[in-house]
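Appendix B. Chain record.
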Amino acid sequence: MHCLVTGASGYIGGRLVPELLAAGHRVRCLARTPAKLRDFPWSGQVEVVRGDVTDPESTRRAMEGVDVAYYLVHALSTGTRFEETDRRAARVFGEEAQRAGVGRIVYLGGLTPSGVPERELSPHLRSRAEVGRILLDSGVPTAVLRAAVIIGSGSASFEMLRYLTERLPLMVTPSWVRTRIQPIAVRDVLRLLVGCAKLPADVNRTFDVGGPDILTYRDMMQRYARVAGLPKRLILPVPVLTPRLSSHWVGIVTPVPASIARPLSESLRHEVVCAEHDIETYVPTPPDAPIGFERAVELALRRVQDANVTTRWSSASVPGAPSDPLPTDPDWAGGSLYTDVRETVVDASPERLWKVIEGIGGENGWYSFPLAWAVRGWMDRLVGGVGLRRGRRDKARLRVGDSLDFWRVEEIEPGRLLRLRAEMRVPGLAWLELGVERDGEGRTVYRQRAVFHPHGLAGHAYWWSVAPFHGVVFGGMVRNIAAAASH
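Structure tokens predicted for this chain:
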């Protein structure tokens, strides 16, 4: 079948595409920034259409000749008007699918608690429920899969659980740790999404999907500790931690920023347990499925330890992250610009220097004044940014679109150039370029360029306030990267 996948650069979409290909389907991806899909292992096997689900024209082009359309786009936080944006996008998607004669829509939403009025749900769960209804009413047969906590290497829910459990042997927790949850392994989610491509044409409904275990969040932390070989955790729930306070608590302890932790924790205030398992009637369940919680944790940890995490919660762009062209690009609008350019000859081959450059960040660090980078990361977290703790997807390799601490890989030319765009909270736009060149004498040269485009007076003040530290931070990077390559 011919399948359209939206959100292919995100956590679920990036894993669904190879599963659809393995099942023998043809895949087309709709992406706002096609370059983000360029370095995925499956990129050469799919067709990519540039566009956005809020734009009818590009969505219409993407729908041509499609049998099944997967709707996997919903941001955890896109500002105060996110519900209207989600509503508009779902309507465009449904209308264009109906106009193009698409045979089925498949949507992955959130499991909502039974018996709880919709007005009492968190805004994000409420929005996901509304998106599901819009697609079901589109005139195209639609399957809405509703999942609670998804357990898999790199998922936001798994990272939250992992870091809370590993870092806090004794913890004071929000009262939602007592809430019953039915988690599901990411492998089962993908299996069901693929299976929905062949649902009968008369199926137009929601399906609750979950694993075989119903646990409280407290149970999940204790079971995680057991699988990870950690001592039993002492957990003291307290009722005074509001969703806002608990999201900041999660943001301090884990790499998941408060902006994403809040909707995740808000969704845990109510019991989220499957009311039915009807999906099993349509999608055959193999002998080894569904996967239990502890087995799902074991599989996820193995991928983390083997550095084989294919997609992460941070694979999708941070809501509100800038996408303006790099200053000096032909289509740049102009304006004030600050740069810090440094270079040095390196006593190493270009290949050895590139290995150091591509390995920068995460556990490998930034080769310069670690305390300054740590302080900058904490400052970013305090104002609601992503901070330094997103780390890397892979210890040695990068691809376009990867998150890298508080940067994102905007361009990578293997052996020659790594360009990072800042996703930290700054009054302007910032890039960092690390490059490998050869001079006229054939020597290896490391070239580093920091670029900052200030926004308003605050942007200019920011640049000049940090400029005195550039010699230590950026100068240290040049010296230490060159030394690492040489050694």
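Further analysis of this model is presented in Appendix C.
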